[in-house]
Amino acid sequence: MGRAARAGGRPEGCGLSDILAGQPADEAALAEIYDLEHDAIVEDFAFYREMARRQGGAVIDLGCGSGRLFESFLAGGAERIVGVDGSAALLERAEARIGVHPALAKARADGRIELVEADVRGVARKDRFALAVLSGVIAHLDGPEDAVRALTAARRLLDRGGVVIVDTLGPGGLPPHDLPLSVDWEKQAGDRRIVRRSRLVRNEVPEGLRVAYSTLTDVVRADGTISRLPASFRLWYPSAAALAALAEEAGLEVEAVLGSHDLDPLDTDSDRCIVVARPAT
Predict the structure, then answer these.
(1) Which of 85, 99, 181, 229 is the most buried (most CB within 10 A)?
(2) CA-CA distance, 119 to 89, in Å (whole number)?
(3) What's the confidence (pLDDT) of residue 1?
(4) What are the φ/ψ torsions at residue 37 (nearest 5 degrees)?
(5) Tens digits of per-residue pLDDT, 99-149?
(6) Structural domains for the chain
(7) Which residues have C-beta within 8 Å of that of residue 12, sequence separation ≥ 6?
(8) Taking the CB of residue 228, how many other CB atoms lie within 10 A of it?
(9) Which residues, 6 or more positions from 242, have their beta carbon under 8 angstroms from its beta carbon?
(10) Any alpha helices (H) in the chain, and if so which ranges?
(11) Cα separation, 138 vs 166, whole angstroms
C-alpha cells in the first residue's frame, strides 16, 4: 500500500480512520507492517512543513495513521497538532513514535499534541484549526458521498483563513492494468523477514477509478515459523475534476491543484493529486 506508488505499481493505502478495522488478521501486526512500508517515505516532509509554517496556528491530521507527518508539522511551527485515526493500533504506534522523539515528546508533555480515535467522516470539535490534512485518506472512502462527508467535516474544523489539503494518487501513479498476486517488497525487521504480496483489480467508474486490493504478508521468524496476515481493501481514486466538484459540494473553494509535493502543476504524468482548498465565501 505504498503512497509513493508509480505507474504500474501498487496503489497507496494510507491513513483512513478505519484502514485496519475489520481485517481478519492481527491489527497490531498489520500496524507494524504499515510503518515498515510508510516510514521510508520522506518526499512530502518539506511540503507539509512549509504548509504548517505558511498557515501558522493549529494542525489537524485527519487519518494520521502512526503520526508520520507530526515531525513536519512541528518543525513548521504548528502551535498544536491533533491526530485523528480510527485504528487503536496505529494510534498506539503514534504514541510510541512521539515517546522516542525528543521534540514530539516535549510537545506532547506541553499539551500541544493530542491523539483522537474517531472516524474522519464525522469529526466534530469546538476548537478550530489553521490547517486540516487528509493525506492518503480519500482512497479509502466509499465514493463521493463519503468524500463529501469527510470534506464537510474538515471544513467545519477550520478557523477563518484555514486551509484543507487533500493528498491522493495522481493520474501517473495509478495502476494502468490489473496486477496478479506477486511480491511487492521484502524487508528485514530484527530477526524476522517480512514478505508482502498483493494483487489488484481495476474498475473504471465515471468519477475515477476503483481498485479491489488484497495483500498476503508473511512474517518469517528466525526459527523458520511463518505467520500469514491477509488483508483486503476497496480503494477509490477520484479524478481531479471529480475531487474539485466534491470539494465545492462540501462548501470549499479550490485554491490550487498540484501534481507533486514540489508544487508542480497537475498533468497526466503526475504521481500525486494535491487539492488545496479554503471555505467558500
Answers:
(1) 85
(2) 14
(3) 35
(4) -80, -40
(5) 999 999 999 999 999 999 999 999 999 999 999 999 999 999 989 999 999
(6) 45-171+239-279 (3.40.50.150), 175-237 (2.20.25.110)
(7) 1, 2, 3, 4, 5, 136, 139, 168, 169, 173, 235
(8) 11
(9) 144, 207, 208
(10) 27-38, 45-55, 70-75, 88-100, 102-109, 144-156, 240-249
(11) 8
The DSSP symbol for 12 reads: P
Q: Encode pLDDT of 65-76 as tens digits.
A: 999 999 999 999
Across 185-210, b (16+ Cβ under 10 Å) vs e yields eeeeeeeeebbbbbbbebeeeebbbb
Please check whether residue 161 is in contact with residue 57, taking contact to mean a CB–CB distance below 8 angstroms: no
Question: What is the rounded distance in angstroms from the CA atom of residue 48 to the CA atom of residue 65?
Answer: 16
DSSP code string of 145-187: HHHHHHHHHHHHTEEEEEEEEEEEE-GGGS-SS-EEEEEEEEE
- Using 50, 70 and 90 to split pLDDT, how confident is the model at 22? very low
Report yes or no on whether pTM surpasses 0.85.
Answer: yes
Q: Rounded distance, CA 214 to CA 231, Å?
A: 6
Given pLDDT bands bounded at 50, 70 and 90, which one contains residue 8?
A: very low
| Nearby residues of 214 by Cβ (< 8 Å), 6 or more positions away | 198, 199, 200, 230, 231, 232, 233
Phi, psi dihedral angles at 175 (to 5 degrees): -65, 130
pLDDT of residue 34: 79
